Structure formats: C-alpha cells, structure tokens
C-alpha cells in the first residue's frame, strides 16, 4: 500500500528577504509562465496550418432528471465558450452512465457535475495525484499529472497541525495556477422534515448516518418506520459499497456497514472522528496505530466481526484481485484511504496493528472505510463477467456485483427492495449502539423505507401530505422559494462540502495545457451562476475546500482572487477573452474561431 516515493526538499514555505516567494516558486515549478508576447503571435502565423482547425469540444453532464443544476451550468458555460470562438456540443447522460463515462471510461472532453468532496482536504490526494491518473473512480478522473503537485499532496498527508495547514495552502496556491478543474460553487442543502413525527433532525447531518440515527419518534406509528423519499433510484438498483457509478456520498452504505471510526458530522457541518466499530485506538509510536474492536459484534448473518475481517477489507480495497492478477486491481472507491496504510496485521481476534504511511491526522481518517465480511467477499476477487458487456482487463466481481442482499454489521440490515421503487432497511437489534453505556446515536425505528421519487416537487408533496418524513436528497434550488411549511413540516438548511465544478480531460489536447485551463476558468462568472442557476441557494467558491481550510488570500471575496471573471454580470468580454487565449499561445482565424492543432 506504500507510495514508495520520497518528498524532495523544496523552499516554498514563505517569503524571505532576498529570496523567492512561495507563490513565485509554485508558479515557476508548476509550469505556468508569463504571458506570451505579441511577437510570438506573429511567428506562429508562418507555421504550417494544414492540421489546425477550430476547437470543438463536448461538455458531458447529467440530464435534467439527474441534476437540473448541472445541465443549466453546462448550457451557460457552453454559451460563453461559443461566444469566444469554440464549437460546443452538450451530451446529457443519466446518473450511472455519466459516472461510467467520466470515472470509468474517461471518455470526455469537459464535464460539469458535483464532486462528493469531504470535510478533510486529503480527498485532494485521491482526486489529483498522478499515481491515479489511469485508475477508475473519483481518483483523478482528469488524468492530471504534475510532479510538484504530487509532492505537495504527499506533504499534507505526512504533516499534522500547523505544518499540515501550511501544506494545504501550498496545494491551493498550486491549484489556482494549474486549474485541473474549475470549482464553481457549493450548494446550500435544503430538505423537508416532519417535526410532528420525529424530533432530533438538527442533531446530525442528513447526508451522513448521524442524520438517521438517534431520532426521537413522536408517535407510536413513527417508531415503526422512518419514511424517506429519495430522488435518485440507484440505491434501489445496486448496494455495492465499492461501485463508483452507483454510490454518491454513501449514506446508505454507512447505515448498512460499520467503519472502525465514524466521521460524525453535526447539522451545522462541524465534525469529529469518534470510535465506532473500534472500541478505541492509540498511537504506540509515530507510525504505528493499534486498534481494538468492540467485543461481540456480528455481521447481519450472525457471523462474528473479527480483526481478520478488517485486515481482509483493507487488502481487498488495495487490490480487489487479492494478488491473483498480474497487476493490482484497486477498488474504485476508498483508494486514498487505504493508500495511507503501509501494512496491517491482526494481533488477536479483536485487535490489530496498522503501520501508517502518513501523518496521524490522515492515518486516523483511513479508519473510516466500511468493513466487509471476508466470508462474503473473498470469492469476489475473481475476474468479472457481465453478460453482454465487455469489461476492462483486471476488473473483478467485487467491483461489478450489485451486492444484493448486502451483508454488513451496520445499524440497519437489508430488508426488501424493488428496483426504481424502494429499498427497505430493518433495524439490526444486535448493533453495539443499542447497548447500555454506549453514547453514540443509535437506530430508534424498526425500519427505514427509502421510496424512490424522481422529482423534488413530487417528493415535497409526499411529505406535505404526510406520506413521508424526510426528503433525503437535496431539494433542487428552483423549488425552494415555493416550499410550503404546513403544520409539522420544516425546511431544514444544512452546509455542504460537495461542490459543482467544470472538469477537464487532461489526456486530450488542449485540455492538458494549464494556460488553456486558466483562461477557461476566467470565462466562468461564478457569482452570476449562483444567482441565475441556483437562485442564490449556493455559495461561489475559489477553492474546493471548506472555509476552515482556505487562507484569506484564496477565499472568495466577491470574485475569484486568482482567476477573476473576464466580463461582468454573466456577459463575457469577448475581446478580453480572445486576447487572453492569444497570450496563452492560441490563435484565431479571420472568422473569430479559436483554432488548435488537431
């Protein structure tokens, strides 16, 4: 699991007298240099033009049924690109098709969508490290490679405290130069809840397991079933925690599967790492983590959860072929987490020891992956076979199985499902959170029925008519102003760590050119898009991290401090944009078309 790389010494820690600033060092090392002069433009005019054509791009995004905001963002971005001489087509796809195209097949030019993000900046390691440029999943879908940024990403993993905060700042400064993707905004999450049937909605964030545990039923009827309405059908079709095409944030996974440690997120967005399946952990030295499991825990089928299951899980996530293939087949999810672990061994039935490759902060977050039962998953380390579908070499059954019925050890167990209609989970009464003396949120209802309803408007109607208790999916922004709150119904507002963004496929020209990406970033009026597309129910951003990690000079200040919009009120200054492209090394024909070498 080790990276097997060392971090070279680099003096980019700050300004000093007679020295070079961190910002200047990053700019030079990352590779973005000063603007191209006009004389270079003249030189370029004598170059052979036979293979130079107008730039044509396709923006891949979700359909309106999948994510109305994504398609509207894509259309606005397409309009701006067309205004500056780029030929643009938009390809709309369903949720799983979109994720398969972008995350698995990498078959796109540009895409617009929402990244799951995280409350901790280490997700950027998985998202951008060049080691993952050819892997499937949310790890580096852009195919972006930059050795300096690799070093910065590793540096923040290996650090703790203020040193780590400084390393994260270095990463954000490098991203502002390279723009491997353009962060646009974070949505303000709105959901409807019924206060007359449950109390405690404000105790946990409804994008996590804590939002559905510890609720206090207000009636005998509500104690029997929590009625959830969800606009995404995928949880009713596939319950494989490793599948990147069907998993979003993994809320259902967290209800079905335990992790050693839980990232408990409060409704206000604050979060803490707390022991979950683990009874506790301790650092015996700087790189050795000893974990003790809670006693007498079982999977839903009655088989005991042991340290061997934990060891198996981390080895499966690192290589779903378990060493039987000619090359490793890492899981398309949780890749960054397991990369933090260099070795893991069971010391006894209920204790294990992990050798951590990173700093302690990142090492502890590596304990948040779902623990899988070895007796159900060991035979899935075989080559995948999907009737009528050609799968990539190295793909295993562990990745393609729908995993229905799922067997975990979480607070709820699988009950029934009907594709595109519902999935029902039943309370797992033997779960450790229901034991006396365990001060963690526990399941309080006998069952959770997740009904699938594709539209925010009809989902809201179910709740307003007392046919549902909570809209678990984020309500689409255009409906917020029309929300009614009859007696017993409340609109709940929560912070988000997900973010909308424009992604570039750096495997294709000219998207691998940082100069091109930076000019495109300046064509996006994020503040205007928040007002026009999200009706104000989002926050424009200059970086993909939550506010606590963003230094003041990189924070949104009414505009992007590094790539300010070339225009105003959503209208791009075409002349300024063309000049920016030309100074970046590109040129236009007599008809105003941006031309590139094909």
Automatic annotation (TrEMBL):
It comes from the Archaea. GO terms for biological process: peptide transport. Keywords: Signal, Transport. GO terms for molecular function: peptide transmembrane transporter activity. Pfam families: SBP_bac_5. Residues 273-593 form the Solute-binding protein family domain. Belongs to the bacterial solute-binding protein 5 family. PANTHER family: OLIGOPEPTIDE-BINDING PROTEIN APPA, PERIPLASMIC BINDING COMPONENT OF ABC TRANSPORTER. This is ABC transporter substrate-binding protein.
């Amino acid at each position: 699991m080790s990276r097997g790389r060392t971090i070279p010494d680099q003096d980019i820690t700050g300004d000093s007298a007679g020295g070079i600033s961190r910002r200047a060092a990053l700019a030079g090392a990352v590779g973005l240099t000063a603007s191209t002069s006009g004389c270079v433009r003249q030189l370029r005019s004598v170059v052979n033009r036979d293979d130079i054509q107008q730039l044509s791009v396709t923006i891949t995004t979700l359909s309106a049924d999948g994510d109305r905001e994504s398609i509207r963002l894509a259309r606005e971005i397409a309009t701006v690109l067309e205004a500056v001489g780029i030929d643009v087509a938009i390809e709309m796809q369903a949720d799983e098709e979109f994720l398969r195209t972008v995350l698995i097949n990498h078959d796109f030019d540009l895409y617009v969508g929402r990244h799951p993000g995280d409350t901790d900046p280490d997700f950027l390691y998985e998202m951008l490290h060049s080691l993952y440029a050819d892997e499937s999943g949310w790890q580096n879908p852009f195919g972006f490679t930059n050795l300096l940024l690799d070093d910065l990403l590793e540096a923040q993993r290996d650090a703790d405290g203020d040193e780590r905060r400084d390393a994260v700042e270095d990463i954000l400064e490098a991203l502002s130069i390279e723009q491997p993707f353009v962060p646009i905004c974070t949505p303000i999450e709105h959901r409807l809840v019924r206060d007359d049937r449950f109390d405690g909605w404000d105790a946990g964030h409804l994008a996590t397991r804590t939002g559905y545990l510890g609720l206090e039923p207000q009636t005998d009827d509500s104690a029997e079933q929590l009625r959830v309405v969800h606009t995404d059908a995928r949880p009713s079709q596939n319950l494989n925690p490793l599948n990147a095409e069907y998993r979003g944030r993994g809320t259902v996974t967290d209800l079905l599967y335990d992790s050693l440690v839980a990232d408990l997120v409060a409704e206000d967005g604050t979060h803490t790492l707390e022991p979950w399946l683990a009874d506790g952990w301790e650092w015996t030295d700087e790189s050795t983590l000893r974990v003790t499991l809670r006693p007498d825990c079982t999977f839903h089928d009655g088989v005991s959860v042991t340290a061997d299951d934990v060891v198996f899980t981390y080895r499966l996530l690192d290589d779903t072929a378990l060493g039987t293939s000619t090359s490793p087949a890492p899981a398309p999810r949780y890749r960054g987490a397991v990369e933090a672990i260099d070795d893991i061994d069971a010391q006894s039935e209920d204790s294990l020891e992990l050798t951590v490759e990173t700093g302690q902060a990142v090492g502890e977050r590596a304990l948040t992956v779902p623990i899988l039962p070895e007796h159900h998953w060991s035979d899935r380390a075989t080559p995948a076979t999907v009737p009528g579908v050609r799968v990539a070499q190295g793909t295993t059954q562990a990745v393609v199985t729908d995993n229905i019925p799922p067997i975990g050890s979480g607070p709820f167990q699988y009950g029934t499902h009907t594709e595109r209609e519902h999935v029902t989970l039943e309370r797992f009464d033997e779960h450790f959170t229901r034991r006396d003396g365990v001060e963690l949120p526990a399941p309080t209802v006998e069952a959770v029925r997740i009904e699938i309803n594709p539209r925010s408007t009809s989902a809201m109607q179910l709740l307003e008519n007392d046919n549902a208790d909570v809209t678990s999916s984020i309500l689409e922004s255009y409906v917020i102003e029309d929300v009614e709150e009859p007696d017993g119904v409340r609109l709940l507002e929560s912070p988000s760590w997900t973010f909308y963004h424009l992604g570039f496929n750096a495997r294709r020209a000219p998207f691998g050119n940082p100069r091109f990406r930076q000019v495109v970033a300046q064509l996006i009026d994020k503040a205007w898009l928040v007002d026009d597309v999200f009706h104000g129910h989002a926050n424009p951003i200059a970086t993909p991290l939550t506010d606590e990690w963003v230094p003041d000079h990189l924070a949104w200040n009414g505009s992007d401090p590094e790539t300010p919009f070339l225009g105003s009120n959503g209208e791009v200054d075409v002349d300024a944009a063309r000049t920016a492209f030309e100074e970046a090394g590109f040129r236009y024909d007599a008809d105003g078309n941006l031309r590139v070498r094909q």
